[in-house]
Amino acid sequence: MYEEKEKDRCCWYAIHTHHKQESRVENNLRAWQVETFAPKLRTRRVNPFSGASIHHSKPLFPRYLFARFKASELLHKIYFTRGVHSIVSFGSNPVPIDDEVIALLQSQVGEDGFVRLRKELKPGDKVKITSGAFENLIGVFERHLSDSDRVMILLTTISYQGRIVVDRELLAEIG
What we know:
Layout: H1 4-7, E1 10-17, H2 22-31, E2 35-37, E3 40-46, E4 53-59, E5 64-70, H3 71-79, E6 84-87, E7 89-90, E8 93-94, E9 96-97, H4 99-107, E10 126-129, E11 138-144, E12 150-156, E13 161-167, E14 171-173
Antiparallel strand pairs: 1-5, 1-6, 1-9, 2-5, 3-4, 7-8, 10-11, 10-14, 11-12, 12-13
């Protein structure tokens, strides 16, 4: 819960933004030297006409981002920042977020700047295809294909052993 001592030290707070204003708020806060963290996901959509994959960036928490500041100095200024709807609060007091929670989220961000939600596969991992023409077939992960979300796996069936290329999102690791 919020305490008076929290006002005088830098804490992380969740900032609720207006619809699709996360980037605007992040830029405005950074202009005031406020540390921000807006975790993003990389999503893929397939064009139904051409079949081409299109990658998009979207917020992990739509309409929210995290900012680290001293409430005693910047609370009023942040409330009135363009694009900010509110600061997540309990009653009239903003609720600080533990540094460990933010550190955990930041540790999931890859070199590309996007949050990794699934475990990286390593050569030799046993996998199962979860949908599509090869649904429920089991194989062994071989490698990622360069510049793509596709992977190569070695399928093993009763009388056939061969390599196929499938979308990474169609695979689930088998313990």
